[in-house]
Amino acid sequence: MKIHTKLQTFTAVSLFAFTTLHAETELSPLLVQDSPLASSQITGLDTSVAAYLANTPGVRVIPQGIPGGSADLSIRGSSFSGAGLSLGGLALRNPQTEHFHADLSFPAWWLSAPVVRTGVGQMAYGEGHLAGTVALYPLPIKAPRRVTSAGVDQEGGFQVQGGFQHTEETLHQGTFGMGVFGGFSDLPNVDNLGNDVESIRAGGQLQYHSPLGQADVWFGFQEKTFGTTGYYGVNPDFRSEEKTEDMHAIALWRTFDPERPFDIGLSVREFKDDYRLDLPTGEFRNQHKSDIRMIQSGYRHPFAQDFGVTIRGAVEQEEISSSNLGNFDRYRISGTLLPDALLTDGVRVYAGIRAEIFEDFDDEILPLARIEFTVNPTLFVYAEYNESVRQPSYTELNYESPGSLGNSGLETETRENFEIGVNWQPNQDTFASAALFHNTSKNTVDWIRASPQSTRFEAENIGKVETMGVELLVRQTVLPNLDVTGNLVLQDKEGDNEPYASRYALDYAEQILTVQLDWRASDLLRVEAAQSWLNQSKNELREGSDSQWLTALAVHYRPENMENVQFSLTGSNLFDDDFQVFAGQNTYAERRFSASVSVDW
Fold it and tell me: In what order do the strands lie in the sheet with 457-461?
C-alpha cells in the first residue's frame, strides 16, 4: 500500500497560545495535566476551545471559516464524526450532528493541556470515539485570580471577556475554590463569503482539592450565531445563518491514589441548533434540540504488586426533538475490563474487552491488547490492537436539505486499529516520538456524491476503507528561551467503493507538516510563530490547489513594571492562502490581523 506524506494543518488562530506538549507513554488509569490548555491571559479574537486545540500535535481542527463558528476535529485523518472531546473522562457526543464535537462552553484557561488518545488508550479511559479522543480535565485552582482581556481587528471585530477565581484553605490540607467567567465576541467577515460569528459565554465553577482527590462542579452557557452561507455543500448564492445554544453542567470526582485510582463523572447537556436558509422559494429552516445525559466511572484494583484490573463503565441517554430529523431517544451502555500485568522488569501487558450495548443497533464486543517495553529510562516502545464502533448521527440517518440527504438504512461503523510506536526523551530539552498505524473501517459512513450528475451529498455506508500512516513528533529546546516543535504525518487511504466525490472520509490530508516556534526574547517580549503545509487527496469537486500553506505570527509585549499586563499583535494566514478546506466549498479564512490587551492579577 502506498504511503503518502501527511502534514498537520495549523490554523492561524492556534498561535494565540502554545500548549505544553505531552506524550502519553503509559496507560496509567488517570492522567491529568497540570499545565493549562491556554494562558489565563487569553489573547486574540477567537477564544473558543477549538481555536486552542488547533496547535495540538496529532489533532487537526478543520474549520468552516474559523473554529469559532463550526469546527470539525480530525485525528490521523479521521472523518469529523470519528474524533471527539472528553472532559474529566466524560465522552462528549452530539446525537444530532458531530459537527459540534469541538464545541465547549467553558473557557480554555480552566482546562488542562490536552492529551490525544488513540487505540487502547482511549478505551482504557472509557472515551470510546471511533478514531481518537482529545482528553481535557479541570485544572486545580491554585490561587486567587482575576482575568480580563479585550481586542479588535482590521475587520471591525472585537471581543471582551473576564473572570475570577477565589480560593480558601480548609481542614485536612484541602482548598475550596470558586470561579465565574463571561465573554462576548463579534467577528465580522470571518471568511471570503462574508460570514460573521457572534458569541456569548458565561458560567461558574466550584472545586474542592485535597491530597486525596479533586471534586469539580461546572456550569456553562454559550449562545453563538454564525453565518453559514456556502457551508454544508449548499449553493453560496443562498444566504444562511445558524444559531446554537449550549447549556452544560458537569460534576466530577477523581482520587490521586496511584495504586487504586477512582473517578466518577456526571454530565447533563442541552444543545439547541437553529438553521435558516433563504431559498428563492422561501425560507428553509431546521430547529433541533438535543438532550444528552451521561454518567461514567472507572477504578483500577491492584490484586498483586505486578497485576491489576481496570474496570470502567458508562451509561449515556440521548434525546432529540427536531423539525426536520424527527423525535427520537436512544441509550448506549459501555463497559471495559482491562487486566494488566508486569511480566518482567520493564515489560507490561494489557489484554481485555470493551462491550458496547446500543438500543437501536447491534451490540459489539471489542478486543483490546497492548504490550509496553521500557527499554531504559529514556526509551519506551509499545504495540497495540483494538476495535471501536460508532452509531450514525440523526443527521446521517434522517436529514434532508437542498445540499444533503440522510439514509435511515445506515449501519454502525466499526474500526480495527493496529499501532506500534516509540517515545524517546534523552533529556529534559529533547523529546521525539514515532508511530506506525494501520486501521480498517467497515461500513464506513461518509457523505458522497455518487456521480457527476449528483446535486447533493448523500449519507452512505461506502464499505471498507484501509488507512496506513506514520506520525512523527519532535520537540527541542534549542536555547533556554527558544522551543521548536515539529509534527509530520504521512498517510494513505484506500476504499473498496470510492465514489465520484467524498466530503469527509476519503477527502483527507495525505501529507501534513507543522513547525512551531516559541521565542521568549526577553522578560518583556515573546514571539510565537507557526508554519504549516498540507497536501490534500484528489477530489473532483475541489477547485484550485490541493495544497495549503498557513503562516501565523504573534508578538506579546509586557511593559516594564507592569508584569500583569500584556499587549498582543497577531496575524493569521499571512499569505492569504485560498485553499478549499471542503471540496467545492469556497469558504476560507482570509488574512487577518488583530490587537489585544489582557490583564491578569
Answer: 404-405, 457-461, 445-449, 501-502
Distance CA 431, CA 164 (A): 35
- In contact, 518 and 533? CB cutoff 8 Å: no
All three cell numbers of 349, joined, read: 501487558
- pTM over 0.85? The answer is yes
Place of cell 499501532: 419
* Rounded Cα–Cα distance for residues 78 and 280 (Å): 36
Instruction: Match 472523518 to its residue by C-alpha cell.
Output: 79
Q: Which residues does the chain have with pLDDT short of 50? A: 1-25, 29
120 DSSP 8-state letter: H
Tell which residue, 7, 14, 25, has the closest CA to residue 424: 25
Residues near 358 by beta carbon (within 8 Å), at least 6 away in sequence = 330, 331, 332, 364, 391, 412
Q: What is the pLDDT of residue 42?
A: 67
pLDDT per residue over 394-453, tens digit each?
A: 999 999 999 899 999 999 999 999 999 999 999 999 999 999 999 999 999 999 999 999
Maximum CA extent, the chain: 72
The whole-number pLDDT of residue 14 equals: 32
Return the C-alpha cell found at 109.
484557561
Domain positions in the chain are: 12-600
Q: Nearest to residue 267, comparing CAs of 288, 283, 246, 239?
A: 246
Indicate the class that CATH gives domain 12-600: mainly beta
CB count within 10 Å of CB 408 equals 11
Q: Is 196 helix (H, G, I), strand (E, B) or coil?
A: coil
Whether residue 195 contacts residue 587, with contact meaning beta carbons closer than 8 Å, is answered with yes
Alpha carbon distance 14, 67 (integer Å): 10
Cβ partners under 8 Å of residue 299, min gap 6: 29, 260, 261, 262, 263, 310, 311, 312
Closest by Cα among 159, 227, 184 to 598? 159
Q: Which three cell numbers stand for residue 98?
A: 458531530
Q: Can you read off the three cell numbers belonging to residue 561?
A: 513594571
Rounded Cα distance between 51 and 62, Å, is: 10
Instruction: Please report, for residues 96, 112, 126, 193, 396, the alpha-carbon distance to residue 356 in angstroms, rounded to integers and kept in the order given.
Output: 20, 28, 11, 43, 20
- In order of 74, 150, 599, the CA distances from 594 in angstroms are 27, 11, 17
Query: pLDDT at position 9, please?
Result: 29
Chain mean position to CA 559: 35
Q: How far apart are CA 98 and CA 409, in angstroms?
A: 19
Number of residues that this document lists for the chain = 601
To the nearest 5 percent, what fractions of the chain are helix, strand and coil?
5, 60, 35
Residues 102, 104: Cα–Cα separation, whole Å: 7
DSSP-assigned states of every residue in 421-442: EEEEEEETTEEEEEEEEEEEEE
Question: Is residue 406 a contact partner of residue 397, using CB atoms and an 8 Å limit?
Answer: yes
Of 120, 26, 126, residue with least CA distance to 372: 26
d(CA 463, CA 569): 48
